[in-house]
Design goal:
heterodimer; A: alpha/beta; Helicase, Ruva Protein, domain 3; Rossmann fold; 4 domains; seven-stranded mixed sheet; five-stranded parallel sheet; about 45% helix; elongated; B: Rossmann fold; nine-stranded mixed sheet; 8 helices; globular
Chain lengths: ~800, ~270
C-alpha cells in the first residue's frame, strides 16, 4: 500500500509535539529560581477569593470550585492568612452560670487574651472564698452574735412564759408542764396544786372564778404559743441576715477586686454582681461537709465542689493570637462545627452544667475565617443544614443534634447564642457547586462568591517561566533535589500533555508534585543530586508501566488475532475506528473495527449498538447525524432507498461519544460505493450534518494506540491516523511516535471535511456535480448515486411483485 | 416520802419524771457507776402537781408546738408515765448488762427535786436529766467544727464542755472533781466557773488542779463570771454550750434556777 496521494498531506513532526524553547529558561538548575506562590495562573479565582474574604457583608461567603489537586486549598489558605493578618484579634468567649436559670448559661465576651486571665482570677477568688467564708463563720464575732440572737429568742420565749407563770401565780394558778405541753391548775398558798377534793370543797363561786381565771390564762397561753412561731421565724431571719452579713463581709473585698479589674466590661459586671449575690446566698456551700454526708452510690457524690457554679468556662481564647483566626475543620460534623454539651453519667442519670459546654470550629473561627471541604461537609449528617442555619441566623447556638431532630426530650442546656462574625470558605469540585446552586435555594444567598479554578493556563513565555519557578518552589517545599533545565523542560512538556493541549499547561499541582517526587526518587537511585530529563522520563514511564496491565492485555489480544484489527490492505465496508479507555489516571487509545452493510431499503441507518442498548445517547446522536447527512447529500432529488447497518465489531460493552461518527460515515459510503477502505489508516473525528469534521478528545492517546499496534507488527511506512484539523493544537505525542513520523514511518493527517477523509481512505476523488447535476461516474459520489438508483429500481420491482402477488390472491 | 438509803455503798441516783426522760444522762450515770463500782438507781418521780392537775375536772392541756387544746386526764398522764418508766427500765437493763453494773428502778410520788434529794445519801451522786423538749448534747447550728483561721492556740472544742462552779468551798471542789471525772469519761473539755472576785479563788483552783487534787482533763478552762449569780452563769452556759452542770448540793439557788430552765442535765454532788 502506498501513501495516499489524494487528500491533505500528513502533518510534519514539529506539529506533533510543542516542546519548550530552552532559551526561555535561562538557568542551570532550579536552585537559581526564586520561590513563587504555589498557585499560578488562577487570577480569576484568586481575585474572587480576595474579594470574598475582604467584603464585610453577610452572605458573601466563598465557594472555591475546581478539580482536585489544582491548589484550591493552598490558594485559599494563603490569601485568607494574608487577609487575616490585617484583621484585629477577635474577642475571647466564655460561658458562665446563669444563677436565675442554670439551664440557660450566659455568654461573656472579653477582649482577646483577657478571658483566660478572668477565668484564672475567678478560680483564685473561689479558692480564697473556700477559706475565707468558713473562717468568717468561725470567728468570735459570728459566734457571739449568733449566740446573742439565739439567746435573745430563747429568752423571749422563756420570759414570756415566765411572765405568764407569774401572772398565773398572782391569781393562785400554777403553770404546769406536761409531757406534751402546759396546763393550768389552782394552787394553795404553799404552791401545791389543789387536789380534786380540795377543789370541790371550795364554794361554787370560787370554783367558777378558778375556771374563768384558768380559761383566761389558757387563752393567754395559746396566744403566747402562737406567737412563738413568728418569734422563731424572726430569729431565723435575723440569723439568716447575720449569715448574709458575714458572708458579704467575707466575699466583698475579693469580689470587689475582681469588679475593679473587669467590671468595666459589659456583661462581666453583671455576672460578678450576680455571683457575689449568689455566693452570699449560698455561703453554706463553702463549709466543709462532714464525711459521709451527701454521698451517693459507691461513694460517688452528685454534689459539685462549691465553687464550680462560679467557674468561668473559657471556650475560645486568643491569648497568643496576633491576628484574626484562620481555622480549617477537617471533620466538619454538626458538633465539631457548633460545639456540644457534654454529659457525665452518674448512677444512671446524665448530668451536665455550663462547664461542660465545648466550643466548635465556628467558635474558634469567630471573628476570622473558617475553611471547610465541601464534600466532607455534605457527607456529615445535618452538618450542612447546621452551617446554613448558623450563617443565616448570624449566631452560634450550641445544641445537640439529637435535640435539633427532636430525638431527645430530656432536659439539657440552652446556652446563650454567640454572635457570629465569620467568613466561611468552602472548597469543592464543580459538580458539587452546580448541584448546590440548582437544588439548594439557600446556597446562593449564603455563598455569593464563587472562585473558579482553571485546570489549565495558557502556555506563553511568561507562563513557562512562572511554571519553572512553580516547579522550583514545589521541589524545595517537598525537600527534593533541584531539577536541571532539561528536566524542567520535560516536566513542562508533560504538563502540556496532561492539559491535552500544546498551547496550555496543566495546573494540577498534586499530579505535578507526584511526578517530581517520583523523579526525585529515581535520581536518588541513580546517585544523582539533580533531577534530569532522564529521571522525569523514567518517572513517567514507571507510572505508565504500573497502570499498563489492561492495555498490554488488549494489545496482546490484537497482536495475537483474537481481536481482529487490520493494519494493512483494504476492505469494503470496514474501517479502523479509534477509542480511548480511561482507567483512573491512565488513559490509552485502542483501535476498533467498525463495519457497515448496505442494501435496498427505506433510508434507515441501523445502529446495532443502539439496537442492543449498548450505545449511549451521544453515540446515537452521532449515528443520526450520519444518517441525515447521507439523506441530505443523496436523497434530495430521489428517495433514499437504502438501509444501512453499523456495528463496532467485537465490542461487548457500552459505547458512547460521537468521535467515531466520521469513521461510521466513511464506512457506510465505502459499502455503498463498494470501494475498499485502506486498513493501514485509522480514523477519529466527529462530523456534523454539513460534513464538517469536528474535534474530539484523547487525540494523543488514539494516535499512539494505533501506532503501538502498527509498531508491534512492524511499521510499513504507509500507516497513519486521520484526525480532525481542530485537534492539531492538542497534539503532544510521545517521542517514539514523533520520531517515526519524522523519518516517514508513520503519518498523521488532519482533515476539515468528510471529503478530505474519504479521499485519504478510498483513494478516489469524491466528485463534484456538473452543470447537469450529475457526479462523474468514476467519482465516489457518482458510484454512490448509481448504487442508490439501482436500489431504487430493485425496490420498485419488489413492490410491483408484491402487488401482483396480492392481486392474484 | 423519805427513802434515804443507808450510806454503805456509793450510788448514782438518776431522777426522772414524765417530762424528763433523759436517757443520755442515764447512760452517762451508768458509765460513771461502772468506773466507780457504784450502783445505779433510777428514780421515777410521779409529779404530784401534775397528777392533781390531771384529776381536776376542767384541766386542759395546751400543746407546746401548736397551741391547740386537748383533754388532759389522769389516764393520759399515767399512760405517759408508764411509757417513760418502761423506756427507763429497758435502757437501764441494757446498760446494766453492757457495763456490768447493778441497777434498780423505783417509782416515788412527789416533787422531782425534793423527792430525788431525799433519795440520796451524803456520798451519793444525783443526776437530774434535762427536759425532753430540750436539744440533745452537741446540737448542730451556727457552730462550725473547723479550725479557727486566726491561728490562735485555742484548741478545737470537742463538743460541749462539762461545767462546774467553784466558790472556794470543799463541796464545790468535790463537784469540780466529779465534773473532771465526767469530762474525762466523755472526752470533753472541762469548764469551771469562778467568781471574778476575790481573784484568789482562781489561783486556789489552779493550785488544786495543778496539785492533782482534781484530775485535770485536757482541755480545762477557768471562766470568771461577774456577777457570780445564777442568771449570769446560766447565760454563759447557754452561750458556750453545756454538756452537764455539776454542782454541790449546797448551791440551792443555782439548783433551782437550773432545774427550772432544764436546758442540760444536772449532777448534784
Amino acid at each position: 500500500m502506498t501513501i495516499p496521494t489524494l487528500g491533505p498531506g500528513p502533518l510534519s513532526a514539529d506539529q506533533l509535539f510543542n516542546s519548550c524553547d530552552p532559551s526561555q529558561l535561562a538557568f542551570a538548575t532550579t536552585d537559581e529560581l526564586a520561590d513563587i506562590g504555589v498557585v499560578v495562573g488562577q487570577e480569576r479565582a484568586l481575585n474572587a477569593i480576595r474579594f470574598g474574604v475582604s467584603i464585610p457583608r453577610k452572605g458573601f461567603n466563598v465557594f472555591a470550585l475546581g478539580p482536585t489537586g489544582t491548589g484550591k486549598m493552598t490558594a485559599v489558605r494563603e490569601i485568607v492568612t494574608r487577609e487575616a493578618e490585617h484583621q484585629p484579634k477577635p474577642e475571647d468567649w466564655c460561658y458562665v452560670n446563669n444563677f436565675t436559670d442554670p439551664s440557660k448559661p450566659k455568654v461573656l465576651s472579653l477582649p482577646a487574651g483577657v478571658g483566660r486571665r478572668f477565668a484564672t482570677d475567678m478560680t483564685h477568688v473561689i479558692e480564697e472564698l473556700s477559706i475565707s467564708i468558713p473562717a468568717a463563720f468561725e470567728g468570735e464575732e459570728y459566734r457571739t452574735r449568733t449566740e446573742e440572737i439565739e439567746e435573745e429568742a430563747k429568752e423571749r420565749e422563756t420570759n414570756a412564759l415566765n411572765e405568764l407563770r407569774r401572772e398565773a401565780k398572782r391569781q393562785h394558778v400554777a403553770l404546769i408542764e406536761t409531757p406534751t405541753g402546759f396546763a393550768f391548775a389552782p394552787i394553795n398558798p404553799e404552791n401545791e396544786v389543789l387536789s380534786p377534793d380540795q377543789y370541790h370543797a371550795l364554794a361554787e363561786t370560787d370554783q367558777q372564778h378558778i375556771r374563768e381565771t384558768i380559761e383566761q390564762l389558757h387563752q393567754a397561753l395559746q396566744k403566747l404559743l402562737r406567737q412563738f412561731q413568728p418569734w422563731r421565724k424572726e430569729a431565723k431571719e435575723k440569723l439568716k441576715n447575720l449569715n448574709r452579713e458575714i458572708a458579704t463581709f467575707a466575699v466583698n473585698h475579693l469580689i470587689s477586686d475582681l469588679a475593679e479589674r473587669y467590671g468595666h466590661m459589659d456583661g462581666v459586671k453583671q455576672f460578678i454582681d450576680a455571683a457575689r449575690q449568689d455566693i452570699v446566698d449560698h455561703a453554706d456551700e463553702f463549709f466543709p461537709k462532714p464525711e459521709g454526708s451527701g454521698g451517693g452510690l459507691f461513694g460517688q457524690s452528685a454534689r459539685q465542689s462549691p465553687g464550680q457554679r462560679y467557674q468561668v468556662n473559657l471556650i475560645v481564647a486568643h491569648d497568643d493570637a496576633a491576628a484574626a483566626p484562620v481555622v480549617f475543620e477537617d471533620l466538619p460534623t454538626h458538633s465539631n462545627l457548633v460545639g456540644r454539651v457534654e454529659y457525665q453519667a452518674l448512677m444512671g442519670a446524665l448530668l451536665t452544667d455550663f462547664t461542660m459546654i465545648k466550643g466548635g470550629a465556628l467558635h474558634r473561627a469567630n471573628g476570622g475565617y473558617l475553611l471547610l471541604d465541601a464534600r466532607k461537609l455534605l457527607l456529615q449528617p445535618y452538618a450542612w443544614e447546621t452551617l446554613k442555619r448558623t450563617l443565616q441566623a448570624g449566631e452560634i447556638r450550641v445544641e445537640a443534634l439529637e435535640r435539633t431532630l427532636g430525638l431527645m426530650s430530656t432536659g439539657t442546656l440552652e446556652p446563650e447564642p454567640i454572635p457570629l462574625r465569620t467568613k466561611v470558605v468552602l472548597i469543592g469540585d464543580r459538580l458539587l457547586y452546580y448541584l448546590l446552586n440548582v437544588y439548594d435555594p439557600e446556597f446562593r444567598s449564603l455563598f455569593k462568591v464563587s472562585a473558579d479554578f482553571e485546570e489549565t493556563i495558557d502556555r506563553t513565555p511568561d507562563s513557562t517561566a512562572m511554571y519553572a519557578r512553580l516547579i522550583a518552589s514545589l521541589s524545595r517545599r517537598e525537600g527534593l533535589h533541584p531539577l536541571d533545565r532539561d528536566g524542567v523542560i520535560r516536566v513542562i512538556d508533560e504538563s502540556a500533555r496532561w492539559a491535552e493541549d500544546a498551547e496550555k499547561l496543566n495546573t494540577h499541582l498534586q499530579r505535578l508534585g507526584d511526578l517530581l517526587k517520583e523523579a526525585d526518587f529515581w535520581a536518588s537511585e541513580a546517585r544523582r543530586n539533580v533531577i534530569t530529563r532522564e529521571d522525569i522520563q523514567t518517572a513517567i514511564d514507571e507510572q505508565t508501566g504500573r497502570s499498563d496491565r489492561i492495555r498490554q492485555r488488549l494489545y496482546e489480544a490484537i497482536r495475537r488475532g483474537t481481536v481482529l484489527i487490520d493494519t494493512s490492505g483494504a476492505a469494503v465496508g470496514q474501517i479502523n475506528g479509534l477509542s480511548v479507555i480511561s482507567l483512573g489516571d491512565f488513559a490509552f487509545g485502542l483501535p476498533s473495527r467498525i463495519t457497515a452493510t448496505t442494501r435496498p431499503g427505506s433510508g434507515k441507518v441501523i445502529d446495532i449498538e443502539r439496537e442492543t442498548e449498548l450505545g449511549g445517547a451521544i453515540h446515537s446522536k452521532g449515528v443520526m447525524i450520519v444518517s441525515n447527512l447521507l439523506a441530505a447529500r443523496f436523497a434530495r432529488a430521489q428517495a433514499f432507498s437504502v438501509s444501512a447497518s453499523l456495528v463496532f465489531e467485537q465490542s461487548y460493552g457500552k459505547v458512547d461519544g460521537d468521535s467515531a461518527s466520521l469513521a461510521e460515515l466513511c464506512v457506510i459510503l465505502s459499502s455503498l460505493a463498494e470501494l475498499p477502505i485502506r486498513q493501514n489508516l485509522a480514523v477519529t473525528g466527529s462530523i456534523n450534518q454539513h460534513g464538517r469534521v469536528q474535534p474530539i478528545g484523547g487525540a494523543n492517546e488514539k494516535i499512539e494506540g494505533f501506532f503501538d499496534i502498527c509498531h508491534a507488527r512492524g511499521l510499513t511506512g504507509d500507516q497513519g491516523v486521520i484526525i480532525p484539523r481542530a485537534n492539531v493544537k492538542n497534539l503532544m505525542l510521545r517521542a517514539d511516535v514523533v520520531a517515526a513520523v519524522r523519518v516517514g514511518n508513520f503519518h498523521v493527517y488532519a482533515v476539515d471535511s468528510l471529503d478530505e477523509a474519504l479521499e485519504l481512505l478510498l483513494g478516489v476523488s469524491v466528485g463534484e456535480r456538473d452543470a447537469s447535476g450529475n457526479f462523474p461516474d468514476d467519482s465516489l459520489n457518482g458510484r454512490i448515486e448509481a448504487k442508490l438508483l439501482e436500489f431504487a429500481r430493485i425496490q420498485r420491482r419488489w413492490m410491483q411483485a408484491d402487488k401482483t402477488d396480492s392481486n392474484e390472491q | 416520802m423519805n427513802s434515804k438509803p443507808p450510806a454503805s455503798r456509793l450510788r448514782i441516783v438518776v431522777a426522772f419524771d414524765v417530762c424528763r426522760r433523759d436517757l443520755d444522762s442515764l447512760e452517762l450515770a451508768a458509765v460513771l457507776a461502772a468506773r466507780r463500782g457504784a450502783e445505779i438507781d433510777a428514780v421515777f418521780v410521779e409529779e404530784l402537781n401534775l397528777l392533781n392537775s390531771a384529776e381536776l375536772p376542767f384541766t386542759r392541756e395546751v400543746d407546746r408546738l401548736f397551741g391547740t387544746e386537748r383533754a388532759f386526764d389522769p389516764l393520759r398522764v399515767s399512760r405517759a408515765q408508764r411509757i417513760g418508766l418502761s423506756q427507763i427500765r429497758q435502757e437501764l437493763g441494757r446498760l446494766a448488762e453492757q457495763l456490768k453494773v447493778r441497777g434498780s428502778v423505783r417509782t416515788l410520788r412527789g416533787h422531782l427535786v425534793p423527792t430525788a434529794l431525799a433519795c440520796v445519801s451524803d456520798i451519793d451522786v444525783l443526776v437530774i436529766g434535762r427536759r425532753r423538749d430540750r436539744p440533745a448534747p452537741d446540737r448542730a447550728g451556727a457552730r462550725l467544727s473547723v479550725t479557727r483561721r486566726s491561728g490562735t492556740s485555742a484548741p478545737a472544742m470537742q463538743g460541749e464542755a462539762v461545767w462546774s462552779v467553784f466558790d472556794g468551798t470543799a463541796a464545790s471542789l468535790s463537784a469540780v472533781a466529779v465534773a473532771a471525772e465526767v469530762a474525762a469519761c466523755e472526752k470533753r473539755p472541762l469548764c469551771v466557773a469562778v467568781p471574778r472576785s476575790p481573784p484568789e479563788l482562781t489561783q486556789e483552783l489552779q493550785r488544786s488542779l495543778a496539785s492533782g487534787q482534781v484530775p485535770q482533763p485536757a482541755p480545762t478552762r477557768i471562766i470568771e463570771i461577774q456577777p457570780f449569780e445564777p442568771f449570769a452563769l446560766l447565760r454563759r452556759l447557754r452561750q458556750s454550750g453545756c454538756r452537764m452542770l455539776v454542782l454541790p448540793r449546797t448551791e440551792r439557788s443555782l439548783i433551782e434556777a437550773t432545774t427550772d430552765s432544764a436546758d442540760w442535765p444536772l449532777m448534784l454532788v
